[in-house]
Specification:
Fumarate Reductase Cytochrome B subunit; about 65% helix; single chain; elongated; mainly alpha
């Protein structure tokens, strides 16, 4: 590996990330198609309406397994410290690229940790409500209505977070996405975005 690159994610971590990301996109697309007749044409991407209805819950199961693996992989590193809360309180400085006004971030900054927890909670809502909707005959109408609403709201929230996640990893902060492609980042990127982690990685 080039001396100008630092290893950030293992191959297994990257695979889990892409499994979760890909399955979520498919679930979002098919879910939107089911919810809005004008978007039903999206089901052609997975073979049509009948195929989409069969695939949706099974892909949801893969998503659930992937999220469980992700929680196990990163849970220990995602607990928020006082420094992380200070970082979150000053997130406007990150958005305006005034990183010198923020506490030095470790491998993950406060925003990334908070994102992890929000997505984890949404995933639980997805899986629990999805199971109920998968076998509706086993539950009462009131519970089905509540689970349908929870599933829908979680999809909207997850979709918005996905857009922000992609934007931050590509357009807003170039060089970020490569960490989930080949597992590396440049030293300049690490020094700028995660200075405490950079020091840990380069300390002799």
């Amino acid at each position: 590996m080039s001396d100008q690159l630092l290893h950030r994610f293992t191959f297994f971590e990257r695979i889990i990330h892409w499994v979760v990301g890909t399955t979520f996109v498919v679930l979002l697309v098919t879910g939107l198609a089911f919810s809005y007749p004008a978007l039903f044409w999206l089901t052609t991407l997975v073979g049509g309406g009948p195929a989409a209805r069969v695939l949706h819950p099974w892909i949801g199961a893969v998503f659930g397994v992937g999220m469980s693996a992700m929680l196990v992989l990163w849970l220990r590193e995602m607990f928020l410290s006082d420094t992380d809360w200070q970082w979150i309180g000053g997130v406007r400085y990150y958005a305006t690229r005034q990183n010198d006004k923020l506490p030095a971030a470790g491998k993950y900054n406060g925003g990334q940790k908070l994102f992890f927890w929000v997505q984890g909670i949404l995933a639980v809502v997805f899986v629990v409500s999805g199971i109920v909707l998968w076998v509706p005959e086993a539950f009462g109408s009131s519970l089905l209505l509540a689970m349908r609403l929870a599933h829908y709201m979680a999809a909207l929230g997850g979709g918005l977070f996905l857009i922000v996640h992609i934007y931050l990893g590509t357009v807003a902060y170039p060089g970020t996405a490569r960490a989930m492609i080949d597992g590396t980042v440049t030293r300049d990127w690490a020094r700028h975005h995660h200075p405490r982690w950079y020091e840990e990685q380069t300390r002799s």
